[in-house]
Give the backbone structure.
Amino acid sequence: MHEMEFEIKAYKKLVSNYSSYMEGLQMHRIGIIMRPEPGNHMEIEGVLNPAAIRGPDGDLYLFPRLVGKGNYSRIGIAKVIFATNGDPIGVKRLGIAMEPEADYEKRPEGGGCEDPRITYFEPLQQYIMTYTAFSSQGPRIALAISKNLLHWERLGLADFTNYKQITFNDVYNKDACIFPKSMTSPHGDTSMVMLHRPLFPGTTAEDIMCDPEDRRIRDHHECIWISYSDLMLNGSRAEHLQEFESNSPLALPEAEWEIGAGTPPVLSKHGWIMVYHGVHQTLTVNDEPHHLVYSAGVMILDENHPEKILYRSSSPVLKPELLEERIGIVQSVVFPTGIDRRDDLSMPNRFDVYYGMADNFIGVARLNLPDKLPFI
């Protein structure tokens, strides 16, 4: 066999082996961790999309979105209960962490503090919450800070500098999450780094459904963005944490089922791991109308240069299959928002992922990270 032919054949075999291997990178469901509490008016329209974070006591806490009548959303707090084998099996409700109070969280017909993510930000030794504030101006990213997870100080809406001709502050925005460590921005400043998902006109899930062919790869179309907030320290307190610059697209869609931010990034042996969400529409079958399907994928970013993608899923690692994921307030949804690296079990390669199920329940699934990933 000619040497070149041998190398091509060997390469194709290698790619095939990698493809087969990566098919095994899937999340394995553990169970439903939280359902709406009967008789609780604050949960009558669902419990979903929680933040997950270890507290100062080492216990794991969930911060679910609690939806009352009329899509009025609060952020609750609950302690996770574990079985003897270490699997999460339930929660103990502890109350409300965030109620719509600020003007940017309220609208005439109600209000919303929605879909939180929480990170322990090491430079400040405090917890930072990013959440969707839903006012009459539409969804925007808001931030809050806490020392103990119980008492939260609002920092206000995220304020972005312009990107090219794009005025971010006039654009709907959701799905924000913070890295736990500071990093250097493109301008050379020590910064807090945030991922988010701007909803530019024409890029919402509903827009995609109306015009599925218009999914062009553009830097202002349906993608995950990365932004930086300079750490201006005043003693032990950082000022202007909600102000972001150096905004740029991080991950554009490569597959028809992608793409939006998900869980906060957690450091792994391969880099920053994030379980993100994607959305696509189904085809019409047997006169049944098509609808949107939300799935989950895995992305790994470089530890020191988070704008560099080392790995991303070619296909979903979790998609709606259970009845509770297919039928609910919104059908066909798995929506990852919380992640817990199981250092408590001396298993740093195990990640428990907490996700919304059809906008009604909260599920948890296990992701075991392999020793090797392709092209790293």
In short: The helical segments are 3-22, 205-210, 323-326. The chain is about 10% helix and 50% strand. The longest strand covers residues 72-82. The chain has one domain: 30-368.
